[in-house]
Known about the structure:
Blueprint lengths: L2 H9 L6 H12 L11 E6 L2 E6 L13 H20 L2 E7 L8 E9 L5 H9 L17 H12 L3 E6 L2 H19 L2 H9 L24 E2 L24 E2 L2 E7 L4 H20 L3 E5 L1 H4 L14 E9 L16 E5 L2 E4 L4 E2 L23
Parallel strand pairs: 1-11, 6-7
Antiparallel strand pairs: 1-2, 2-4, 3-4, 5-8, 8-10, 9-10, 11-12, 12-13
Helix pairs in contact: 1-2, 2-3, 3-4, 3-8, 4-8, 5-8
Amino acid sequence: MNSVLAGAATLAGPEQAPGEIARYVVGEAVWAPSVHNTQPWWFTADPGGLSLYADPARQLAAADPAGREMRISCGAALFTARLALRAAGYVPETRILPDPARPLLVARLSWKRGPAATGYERRLSAQVRSRRAHRGGFDPLPLAPELLAVLRDCAGRYGATLRVITDPGTRAALAEIVQEAERALELDSAHVRELTAWTAPPGSSRADGVPATAYPARPERTFPYFPSPDFARGRGWGLPPLSVVPGRSAGVVCLLATSADQPADWVNAGQALQRILLTSAAWGVAAALHSQPFELGREPGLMHPRPGLCPQLLLRLGTTIQTAAGVRRDPGSVLLLWAGARVRRNSERTRTPCPRPPAIRRRWSARDPGSGSR
């Protein structure tokens, strides 16, 4: 039994204090994927449950001025928190964007005792800390049609659509779009400065950003070529190549899309994304993510799966040997515990009562899609 499932098993015993449950849940949620590993979230816990906030101090001003990728990242953390509760035998109840007056309050979570986790939920939970983003090519092996059907269902559970691109011409055209976007971003000085700021040098003790253990020293070409951001930038940082074979497979190319393009849709896209990533990992399949065209603020019509759908992310799926290693901040640094009339950081430092996230430049309004566990 790994440490994650061991922790869940401990909570599945006698009734635990809300603070202990919150610590365990946040300890898992911080392993969710986030754009450039910015980890743009923080949590508060009180006797009624757990609140998840977006952290605008970790928003990418150049690449993500609207906060779309920040909220997708928070949606992934939300799914991971809900999965942690299920692994411990609790049924989560979720309200997304519950307070229009506080647009940075992404979700409110409460829980009650429920049935034991299913085998599927336990398998996903076991992947939370070991799953890594891939930045390169894949082995030339097809994926099982059954897996792709399951991944489509993963997206559909959150009102999203996962379109698998099977036409070679469309795949090549999407690759060209990503190439063009990457070239444009490399010429954007603000974007380059931001990418550099979130790239940690080898041996760094940073617990956020993209470490040198998470990307190749030289961009790995795929066929067709889907470039990843060049974190190394010629400095020799990064991992040695996994293969000397030029032009590895691009894998199965997919588009994740939603029916609208509002904050609630971004959060649900993040939930769908994390379910897709963990399910893929449980099948031994890795994923590469591409957001470059979206960071330019424009997506060619080809990226729209069908009229009425809004693309949120491009994914590539395949099998490969993964050597990347990730980093995360201490959960205690992002969790505030309610202690009587004050809010207390998990490390015992005090904060002001009832913390409200700082205001942001643009105020969003979005309908509350309701609560419930999926």
